[in-house]
Amino acid sequence: MAKYKYKRDVFKGLTPFPFLGEVKTRVKNIEAASTEFPKSVFNPNTLAAKLHPHYQFAKVAKVEEQPDAKVYTLVADEAKGTKSLAYFRAGQYISVVIDIDGAKVTKPYTLAGSPKAALGDENTSYTIMIKKAAKGYASEYILNNWKEGTEIVISGPLGHYYYQGLRDAKKVIAAAGGSGITPFISMARAIVDGEENFDLTILFGSKTEKDIAFKKELDEIVAASNGKVQVVHILSDEQKEGYESGFITAELIKKYAGEEDYSIFVCGNQNFYKFMHGEVEKLGLPGRRVRFEVPGEMGDPTQDEAYNGDVNAEYNITVVIRGEETEIKCQGGETLLHAIQAAGIMVTSDCRSGLCGWCHSRLIMGEVFIPEDHDGRRLADKKFGWIHPCATYPMSDIKMEVFPIM
Ligand code: FES
Fold it and tell me: Does 333 sit in the ligand 1 pocket, CB within 6 Å?
């Protein structure tokens, strides 16, 4: 046996005898214990199930008409088995499951209310806001069909786009483009309600004064925030007193950040992200202080310079579900997830941005295009043929395995 050289002095006074005593005590306690299986509930499991339900049954309790949006209040559908909606962090989203003529569509929506409304076991609610001009058939379907009493299925709260005291500074500069304002409305409400404690300056970009969404709500929140929430409107197509004009540039961010340490949160559409990535880089902030929300569906793949497929081509997709094969069609300019759900197959999906991994599926055969900035796969996924169909376009006939949930 090899001899180890160590300083014995370090262990002086440490003997194994106290530990041997522990063993005896443990054996005695085990012998004295009941042999019956404990009937008590294991509280961490109950809490985890409450905080992270895979699905929740909900009902539309109220539909509020606003000039530019409809605001939906959702409550738990007790008759279907959901007693209360799960608590969330301001900035998180839910995925709504919609059945449109047999097509199972999921669509993520950021929760716009304060998390306080989902605290506790009774009378919990969520708020989502959908702009009337929202494009995409899920949003259009909701705007035209949801009314008081509509029963819906939603996911638990998702995403990591929320304030984290360990990585974020006490001051947050939020850069919002268009409907990217929603998570910041939730954060601002959470600050007013005492659910979050940081200083928030929202730089909100709109084209003109009349295009500013949710202006009334924002003004009310600022007035109630005791100076902790500030909103600065930036108009790109108009110069008007009381507003900044132009774009949300690095200079403008520095102007409102002042000398303090700050985190930057960015939310908006993909063009906004392209611009903001350049501006945020100029700030030279450490990575932990920079937060971009997931970009959402890419839509037309020709937006990506690397795409060289044919958006009008029609491919045969063989979808394998638990060993059974189903044949469907998919256009070159359509994501595999879109085609699968349009065929009525319900697979898990949440972010629809290629980044969360919920929709991961196995590519058995065929060629695909995956835009680089929507490719959230791990190295091992890439190596062993896993794809995220929400951000994958067919370039040939495809055979793939998916994992339906309903
Ligand atoms: S739904 Fe998130 S990666 Fe596909």
Answer: no
Partnered with residue 153 across adjacent β-strands are: 57, 97
For 302-401, which CATH superfamily applies? Beta-grasp domain (3.10.20.30)
Pocket lining: 357 vs ligand 1, CB cutoff 6 Å:
yes
CATH of domain 171-292: 3.40.50.80
| Ligand 1 contacts CB of residue 375 (under 6 A) | no
Integer-rounded Cα radius of gyration of the chain: 26
Give the CATH number of domain 47-155: 2.40.30.10
- The identity of residue 237, as a single letter, is D
**Both structure tokens of 359:** 């929709």
Report whether pLDDT(231) > 80: yes
The 3-state DSSP class for residue 282 equals helix
pLDDT in tens, 174-189: 999 988 999 999 999 9
pLDDT in tens, 186-206: 999 999 999 999 999 999 999
Name the percent of the chain in helix, strand, coil, to the closest 5.
Answer: 30, 30, 45
Structure tokens belonging to residue 310: 């044919």
